[in-house]
## 1
Amino acid sequence: MNRDVDDLRRVVAEWVVRERSERERARYRRFGAALSRLKARIAARPVPPTEEELEIAMTAMLVIMGRELATRDS
């Protein structure tokens, strides 16, 4: 999370390009979009979050995204 948004987008874009599965590419795209939104919310805070808060936020984001995928596939 210490990287700037453009750098994070580049990393996610590399994941998308390397992935063979369209489903996984779509998951990485959604993850990248969610990561950008999270980064913007963090930047708007008056006090930076702790490492623990970042871990909780990232874990929650991944769980929510996994549930969304499961719902779409059923």
## 2
Amino acid sequence: MSQRLSRKEIKRDEFMETLAGAFEWVRGNSQILILSGLAVLAALIVVVAYLGYSESRAHKADESLAQALRIYQAPLDAVAANPADPEAPTFADAKARSEQANEHFEAVKEDFGNTDAGKIATVYLGQIAAMNGDLESAKTYWQDFVAKSSDHALAVEVRVNLMALDRAAGKGDELVTELRAMLSGPNAGLPPDLLWYQLGLTLEELDRQSEAAEAFERLVEEYPQSAFAPAARQRTGQGQSLPFGT
């Protein structure tokens, strides 16, 4: 006797046929599945190993940078200098300390250049070069840092250092043009109050006092809460004293 199947029964039969076909495919292709599974597992192992390597490399980079900083900040002791102490080195004079710090920062940059520690080491290499009067090397280090790490927390400070180098190198006119262009258009990621302050400083260096005063006044008027406002007021005769370190 014939019997009409319900829609539910038809769907169930179709599912069972599909499931049976799937089992048959698995039995016939078990080797492929095993190899595929091994490939996925191998890929996962590679990823885990890479992450572990990256973490280990970053840790080593941080340790190397910390040691370089200990040397850079080490106290001077002409009587009992001990530069070989890994935890608390001391140096007989600033020259010896600077030379050893420079060697360690160079090693960090060379071995871990793409890590955050390597980038920070580049900043300190520029600082040491500037302190030793080698402004060209300082500029090269800092330009390299900015080119590779424009979004780094130290990028603004480094760019300000580069502006100071330009003023010291007698490139004030070019710097004024650059600063005015940034103030009238895209500021290239630098705060406008900082740009006005740097413009004022540069114009002062060029002995263009009235233009410098205008730049400082503009800063005070538009950004009265700026960290640069007190120094700008002082330079325009509106303040009483310069803040320490300005």
## 3
Amino acid sequence: MHIEDAWILRALMENTLDGIYVKDRQCKIWRVSRKLADSLGFTEIEEIYGKTDIDLYGEEFGGKTMLDDLEVMESGIPKTGVIDKLKKPNGEYNWTSSTKMPLRNDRGEIIGLLGISREINEIKNAEHAFQWLATHDPLTTLPNRYLLLDRIDQAISLANRNSESFALLFLDIDEFKKINDLQGHMQGDEYLIKLSELLLKNLRSSDTIARFGGDEFVILLNEIPDRTAARIVADKINKMIFDQVDPIHHIFTASIGLSLYPEDGNDAETLLNAADLSMYATKQQRNL
């Protein structure tokens, strides 16, 4: 290698923002960039030379990356966009995207591997945030209707395997528009948040509480034996709402309908429609 080429290589390895590494056919490290050494906690780069990913990252993570490296060196086919996540001691994950290329000598023989790794934590965090927003209600942080439908499908599969039943409670806030008109939308939002917190606190962690619409909530009660048991839960929720959401004026109340699987339907849409119709029947009866 010419002196000028060596200087360029040294400058690249010292200043690049990516993690660059060179390994031999036994997956032992020949050379690493300063960025990679710093991320691994090494002050002296030479301390890393001769180590494998198992030495640096442990058997589980290191074994996986070494298999990828060996595949590239044995096949001669580069790998691009290899996504890995490594759990750090503080419990957080470090996400990287890597490109791995076979390293050849002048005769074309594969003598090692060149890897370039870039941290993509910001991208992954953004992906997780978008995924959360797509499946949750931003005001109450409850699952939205899309996640609810998935949970109902899961409940159907589980109920069929275990010969069990489950219930849906369809909760509609009474005259919510009037509440917003009289007390303002900010107070209306506070009521919705308080209702969500009460439901989360008083129902089982195995149940799903979802905000289905503006003033509509659906509760998936797993392992409910019959309609009577579901109605007992609905009555308790009604009393809790009346007593605790607006304990002074009791202006905040709700009507709750229910459906039971498989008695009222064999799919999510049918069960939701049945619970919705039951809710309207309850609301009409209360208004008589």
## 4
Amino acid sequence: MRAYGDQKSDNVPVKRSPDENRKLLRELKETLAGMKPHTTPTLRESVVNRIRALEAELKAPVVPRR
């Protein structure tokens, strides 16, 4: 089956509001803090990278929509 225009399967990034990004950032930081010492370095690194990306996105100026 083909995807319709507004489906999530269009291989496009999910657009989140700044509030949703802050919530996701908080959850990721809690996840990182709760990781056990034996967690794989790759998993830990991916969570840290996602946190950095979200922090950079939140610091970027908001472009108003038309």
